Amino acid sequence: MDGCSRTKFPHWITISGTCNPRETVLNRDGNNVQVDVQCQAVPAPWTSPYDGASRTRRDDLDIDHMAPLAQAWRSGANTWTTARRRQFANDLQSSQLWTVTDSVNQAKGDKGPALWKPPLASFHCTYARSLTDVKHRYQLTVDPAEKTALQDILATC
Length: 157
Prior knowledge:
Blueprint: H1 21-29, E1 46-47, E2 54-55, E3 61-65, H2 69-74, H3 82-89, E4 97-101, H4 102-108, H5 124-137, H6 144-154
Antiparallel strand pairs: 1-2, 3-4
């Protein structure tokens, strides 16, 4: 973890005007989300895929990096350029960013599948597939414990 910090992964960059990836993901993942003039999602129904909880306040939600930033650092992102880490932290093209309940995201922290799985068992397969996709896209390593955990999950799908 030498040298790792969130600032090495510039995230929530401006996409257009005042829109950033956080707002874009909130808008994408909510149900009939409306946005204000600042591009911020106004109260709407969101359902967290990690635990199935419904929320209407954006402050009760986090945008989770499927492959946590610190885990990515340990898996190869420490050798990337800042531009590559920025791309990773703001990636709207892959399955990297998810709107989830803030408390569940905080419980996940930087844990991988060997130490954490979403509380909602019906999301385990999507979680394993999404994490595998992100790790593959960014050529991040998978340690033996992660590999075993992912194989165990995927064997149930």
